[in-house]
Write a structure and sequence with these properties.
The protein has helices spanning 7-38, 68-84, 151-156, 200-203, 284-288, 314-321, 328-332, and strands at residues 55-56, 64-65, 112-115, 120-126, 165-174, 184-187, 192-195, 213-218, 222-228, 231-237, 240-241, 252-254, 259-262, 267-275, 291-299, 305-312. With 341 residues, it is an alpha+beta fold.
Length: 341
């Protein structure tokens, strides 16, 4: 029976099927790893063989305990400080920060993190193409209707062609004390990417007419630019994937601005795209090294507008930049965390 698809599409599909199968296998393995982590006590390492996950810390959701005694011992030993310092994000397979066996980088390396004094914090990771090139369009580049597909728009969505959008994954969590339940509202539409003074001119070259950008004058470092996102979307709330049709989720305050209400322990994951590409910036690490911090806006329990900064952590970025002349490290820290030297 003849295929309903064009020959070029069949050839493309046959060439990419092995890679897709490998990625799918990795996704299934991450699901298993996350489930195992939820059944293992953080303090003593004992595994619960039932299907029900162990009890977690209600503020951070990043640790699990088999009983009250292990929780108290671990809290006094280190978790009291680690939890308040937002040392690690909540345990969630959609934002995995663990390095797989024989790997070098985690699936979601943390390039920026920070928190406010009142217990709201965030982590920033990468979400782009597998070869680190900037994307052409925010979100899906291939039409959902197969009849609308052409070789041009399909190839433009593949690795190897540079765009101007830096795709990031941002996880924001409310870690306020559960005994005083205060909800905060996070406004994803207003998350600002702030350049370094030296990177401001370079990252502004790809800006299109009408896109908002602000100038930030710092007496110590000089002039920087604040870049608003070109597109933003909520992908997960408390580890559960949010579909496009779920705009009436009880946590979503305003679907247009991706404003989410978070109680103590709650967290949301956003996919945010920034237009920072240009003649001298074609890959995501070239954009990241010219960013200084991200400004996360939110409203507290009284409706007062607040904000905090997640400053760039250059340790992982520096390791990647040292090897940037070779292609495989870029794949390692993207979708192939199991590849090693």
């Amino acid at each position: 029976m003849p295929s309903q698809y064009p020959d070029w599409f069949e050839r493309l599909k046959n060439a990419t099927d092995p890679g897709v199968d490998s990625i799918q296998a990795g996704i299934e393995q991450r699901k298993t790893d996350t489930q195992v982590a939820k059944l293992r006590c953080t303090n003593c390492g004992k595994e619960e063989h039932g299907r029900k996950p162990l009890q977690s810390c209600s503020q951070c959701r990043s640790v699990r305990y088999c009983d009250r005694n292990c929780q108290v011992v671990h809290y006094r030993a280190s978790h009291k400080v680690d939890c308040a310092a937002f040392k690690v994000p909540p345990l969630c397979r959609a934002f995995s920060v663990d390095v797989r066996p024989h790997g070098i980088y985690p699936e979601h390396p943390i390039f920026a993190q920070g928190h406010a004094r009142n217990g709201v914090g965030a982590w920033v990771s990468i979400a782009g193409q597998v070869d680190a090139r900037l994307s052409h369009l925010p979100g899906d580049s291939i039409p959902s209707d197969i009849d609308d597909m052409t070789p041009e728009n399909t190839l433009n969505a593949l690795p190897g062609t540079s765009g101007d959008l830096l795709g990031l994954v941002i996880l924001v969590q409310n870690r306020q004390n559960p005994k005083t339940p205060i909800k905060v509202v996070v406004h994803a539409a207003d998350i600002l990417a702030v350049t370094t003074p030296r990177g401001s001119d370079i990252l502004s070259q790809g800006r299109k007419p009408g896109e908002k950008i602000s100038t930030i004058e710092d007496p110590d470092t000089g002039r920087s630019l604040g870049v608003l996102s070109a597109k933003y979307v909520i992908t997960h709330i408390n580890g559960r994937e949010i579909k496009n049709a779920e705009k009436k989720h009880p946590f979503i305050v305003d679907p247009k601005t991706c404003s989410v209400s978070l109680g103590p322990g709650d967290y949301a994951i956003f996919h945010v795209d920034y237009r920072v590409g240009g003649p001298r910036v074609e890959r995501d690490y070239q954009a990241l090294e010219r960013l200084s911090y991200f400004e996360i806006p939110y409203s507290d329990g009284d409706g007062v507008k607040c904000k905090f900064q997640t400053k760039m952590d250059t340790r992982i970025l520096s390791a990647i930049l040292e090897r940037r002349e070779r292609t495989w490290p870029l794949l390692v820290y993207k979708l192939c965390p199991g590849i090693s030297e």
